[in-house]
Design goal:
With about 100 residues, the protein is an all-beta fold. The chain is globular. A hairpin with a 2-residue loop joins β4 and β5. It has a seven-stranded mixed sheet, with no helix packed on it. It contains no helices and seven strands.
Length: about 100
């Protein structure tokens, strides 16, 4: 099973993020490419579902959710806690032109 995932966004702003089959201590790398939406996106981190639980949450350093700029790609790391519906996110890199 891979721990690297890509989302290429091609329509209106993303509104939610859903993680399936997450396990305690699992770390993943997530690449999100904003290929369509003309603004920057961050509000999708407000609606997180983890393993079917819509009360999931991803905490970010300084409580600052990252935003994906139009036409750019970002790489994020996500680590799932012992209470798998809670995860911790960190930015690996932003504004890649691919």
């Amino acid at each position: 099973m891979s721990n690297y995932f890509e989302i290429t966004h091609t329509s209106n702003a993303l509104t939610a993020v859903e993680f399936e089959n997450a396990s305690e201590g699992q770390s993943i790398i997530l690449k999100i490419r904003n290929g369509y939406y003309t603004g920057s996106m961050s509000s999708y981190w407000d609606d997180v579902t983890i393993n079917g639980d819509s009360n999931g949450v991803v905490y970010w350093p300084s409580s600052s959710e990252p935003a994906v700029t139009s036409g750019m790609s970002d790489l994020y790391g996500i680590v799932f806690s012992g209470d798998v519906k809670i995860a911790y996110g960190y930015v690996i890199g932003q504004n890649y032109a691919v």
